[in-house]
Design goal:
Blueprint lengths: L6 E6 L7 H11 L3 E6 L9 H8 L18 H7 L2 E7 L1 H9 L5 H8 L4 E5 L3 H4 L2 H12 L3 E2 L3 E4 L5 E5 L3 H15 L6 E6 L4 E2 L5 E2 L6 H12 L3 E6 L12 E4 L3 H11 L5 E4 L6 E3 L18 E3 L3 H7 L6 E8 L3 H11 L4 E6 L11 E2 L1 E5 L4 E3 L3 E2 H14 L5
Parallel strand pairs: 1-2, 1-3, 3-4, 4-5, 8-11, 8-13, 11-12, 13-16, 16-17
Antiparallel strand pairs: 6-7, 9-10, 14-15, 17-19, 18-21, 19-20
């Protein structure tokens, strides 16, 4: 596919593989992309800014300001300008800066302020690449949702042979094209996502709730947005930050409030993702004043809350796709498949509350995605951003006519 009109920030750092950035720049420009290059000063030892400026047809940036003209190179504007930020090669040094949030040059500052997706291609000797510190930094960036283009194997500058070579420019271009191709596969679709917990009031200061952080729902919302959808987010009380500029946001507290908000939005939606951990029960009566502690035991009468996914599943229209979530502790597959049928889901995402590193509060998750026709996909333990991409791929592949 063509990259016509795509805005690419290309970061180049101090690695012998920096010489490949010239070929990468040429391929990007040839594909129709606008390319702005930012170099770390250590990259100057391997390739000249003049070479890359000539190929990109733009001045190469490396400092916060131009000493000759006094012009300020605004890292915030650079981050906002780009559709994609590719750093190829990224050295172990810059990798560590990105992972730890260190900011001592224009490249790092632009990375920290960039709102666009970030794709990085490591390049270093094989022992460096396998060092626990480097592996930890790569894992950290993956957990941030950054796209890692794993180093390729072959002969290295040291004379050793193994994994550490920067991904070849032709392969990077293929990844960039795949990124933008997938980026538009939900173009013009409307998506309703419920996320987070609900809070069911006991009195003016206490409530019944659960441990949901909303991280999985938000990750799905961000991936839908990145892939072209218009996202309507109905969120229970969460502490994670997200921008109302990205989504249509409806903040609620109780299960009833979440149901009413979702019910109004539902008729115009193409996809509905029920990722919220909705309280099944709430107090039958809410005390008008704070309940005072007594020496005796206290009993609370609970009533069943509305089942949002079930009720909306009853009025689901032809062409709408409903995606459910099931967090289970026992008989997991049996319970998930039961919900799939009962709530009229097209597919369901199964979490195990007993899986280490998965479920509530974690930045990682492991899920099994179950289709109505019996097909399944397992994410393995991965950052929730990566799991969200898999969920959307499975939604796209679902045998449902939109």
């Amino acid at each position: 596919m063509s990259l016509q009109g795509k805005r690419i920030l290309l970061g180049v750092t101090g690695s012998i593989a920096a010489y490949k950035s010239a070929h990468l720049t040429r391929l990007l420009v040839k594909s129709g992309a606008e390319v702005q290059i930012i170099m770390s000063t250590s990259a100057f030892d391997f390739i000249t800014p003049l070479t890359l400026a000539t190929l990109s047809k733009r001045p190469v940036l490396s400092e916060f300001s131009d000493n000759k003209t006094g012009k300020w190179h605004n890292h915030v504007e650079l981050g906002l300008w780009a559709d994609l930020f590719v750093v190829a090669p990224i050295s172990a040094n810059t990798l560590a800066k990105f992972a730890q949030g260190l900011c001592d040059n224009l490249l790092a500052a632009t990375y920290l302020s960039a709102r666009c997706p970030v794709m990085i291609a490591p390049a270093m000797d094989l022992d460096m690449y396998q060092h626990p510190a480097v592996r930890a930094n790569l894992a950290t960036l993956r957990s941030f949702g950054k796209i890692i283009l794993d180093a390729e194997s072959g002969e290295l500058a040291s004379g050793l042979s193994g994994q550490g070579r920067m991904m070849e420019p032709e392969h990077i271009i293929a990844e960039v094209e795949k990124f933008f191709g997938r980026n538009n596969d939900f173009q013009s679709k409307k998506v309703l996502i419920t996320m987070g917990p609900t809070q069911e009031a006991l009195d003016p200061v206490r409530y019944i709730s659960n441990h949901s952080s909303g991280k999985m729902g938000l990750a799905i919302a961000q991936v839908f947005k990145a892939r072209g959808a218009e996202v309507f987010l109905v969120s229970g009380p969460v502490s994670i930050a997200f921008s109302s500029d990205e989504f249509h946001v409806f903040k609620v507290r109780s299960a009833q409030e979440m149901y009413e908000a979702a019910l109004k939005l539902h008729p115009s939606m193409d996809y509905c993702v029920f990722a919220a951990a909705v309280a099944d029960y709430g107090p039958a009566e809410v005390a008008p004043e704070k309940i005072k502690k007594s020496d005796s035991e206290m009993s609370i009468l609970l009533k069943k809350n509305v089942d949002i996914a079930f009720e909306l599943g009853r009025v689901k229209k032809p062409g709408q796709v409903h995606i459910g979530f099931a967090l289970e502790t026992e008989n997991e597959m049996l319970h998930a498949q039961g919900k799939l049928e009962k709530k009229n889901f097209d597919l369901i995402v199964l979490n195990s509350a007993r899986e280490e590193g998965a479920g509530f509060q974690h930045d990682t998750n492991r899920v099994r995605i179950i289709h109505r026709d019996g097909r399944m996909a397992d994410s393995g333990l991965a950052p929730k951003s990566v799991v969200a991409e898999l969920i959307l791929d499975e939604i796209k592949n679902a045998q449902v006519s939109i």
